[in-house]
Each structure stands twice: as structure tokens, then as C-alpha cells.
Write a structure and sequence with these properties.
Length: 192
């Protein structure tokens, strides 16, 4: 299976396919929204659908029309389920969408909180450390391990419940046997 991502588009892509490895994919996580970012030649390109979800924009195609041609492209991702085309936007397109979003300027909205997070946390973090976000491989590995843990915990939880039931059954059987064969010891004392 080919684990490369091909990106085509205008502007930086110059109608030429570019390839990068899945290790170049990073996820920015804000509350319940994941924004996938792929790095092409060291530059971040954001999955348009994810950005639009974070900005509470219902139509990503309309949002993309507001951007210049060099700020958008198409991402062809090879996955086990088949090839998937995803619209992507450049870093400048990402900031432009945030700046132009009405919801991002309306206090109390999710989009407003998201834009504050980008401008208050993500950008300063990138400036200070050179990166921000969870590398895709690390997130995938974590998700896989978490799922395995949950399966194991469920199995162990069921086994523990079965052990507790068995213990109660044995305690009840012990009481029944004492009552039946040694009633004088039933309450833990010898009855005179």
C-alpha cells in the first residue's frame, strides 16, 4: 500500500503533484474538533472540511471560493478504504477564513473560541517551538492503544463482576451449609 499523499492545485502546487509521507500529517485538536494539517515542503496545508467545521461554516465549497487560487488545492490520500480527495487550504487561506468568518467574531460561539485558540495558543506555540499539534502517527498509535485498553478493561471488568458473583454465591453456600450442618455456629458464635 502506498502511504503517500498527492496534492494538486494552483499557486504553490503549480498543477504538479507533490508527495509527502503520512508522518507529515499533524492533528490540531480543539474541544471536539480535529483539524488535520499536512506539511508540504515544510508549509502547512489544512483540510478545508475540518477548518470549516471549526468555524461553523456549513458549506466548505462556498468558503473555498472566497480564497485565491494559490490558497487552495486538492489532497489525494491513499487509505486502506481507497483513495480520497480532500480540499486543502494554505496557511494564509486558513488565517483568511478565520478573519472573514462572521461567527469567529461573534462572542460566545464555538468559532469565536476556536479563532481565539488559534491566535492565542497555536500561533504563539508555533513561533516559540516551531510546531503545534499531535503528529498523526502518534495520534493513531495512541488511539489504537486506547481502544485496546478499553477492550481489555471491559473484558477484565466482566471477569471481575463474574468473580464477585462467584464470591457471593460461595458466601451464600457457606452460610447455607453452616445453617444446615452446624446451626449452632450460624451467627459466628457457638449457641449454648
Amino acid at each position: 500500500m502506498n502511504k503517500n499523499i498527492a496534492v494538486t492545485g494552483k499557486g504553490d502546487a503549480r498543477h504538479v503533484k507533490k508527495f509527502c509521507d503520512f508522518r507529515d500529517l499533524v492533528v490540531l485538536r480543539f474541544d471536539s474538533v480535529n483539524v488535520r494539517v499536512v506539511y508540504l515542503n515544510g508549509d502547512p496545508w489544512f483540510v478545508a472540511k475540518d477548518v470549516c467545521a471549526a468555524l461553523e461554516l456549513t458549506n466548505s465549497r462556498t468558503a473555498l471560493q472566497m480564497l485565491d487560487d494559490d490558497e487552495k488545492g486538492v489532497n489525494l490520500t491513499y487509505t486502506p478504504g481507497g483513495n480520497q480527495n480532500m480540499s486543502i487550504i494554505s496557511e494564509s487561506g486558513f488565517y483568511k477564513l478565520i478573519a472573514r468568518s462572521r461567527k469567529a467574531t461573534t462572542q460566545g460561539t464555538f468559532a469565536h473560541r476556536f479563532s481565539n485558540w488559534v491566535f492565542r495558543n497555536v500561533i504563539p506555540g508555533i513561533r516559540k517551538t516551531g510546531a503545534y499539534g499531535i503528529p498523526w502517527g502518534a495520534l493513531q498509535d495512541f488511539s489504537r492503544r486506547k481502544e485496546q485498553y478499553q477492550i481489555s478493561a471491559s473484558e477484565k471488568g466482566r471477569a471481575l463482576q463474574a468473580c464477585k458473583r462467584k464470591k457471593r454465591e460461595l458466601e451464600e453456600e457457606e452460610k447455607r451449609l453452616i445453617r444446615e450442618y452446624q446451626p449452632e455456629f450460624y451467627f459466628g458464635e457457638r449457641i449454648q
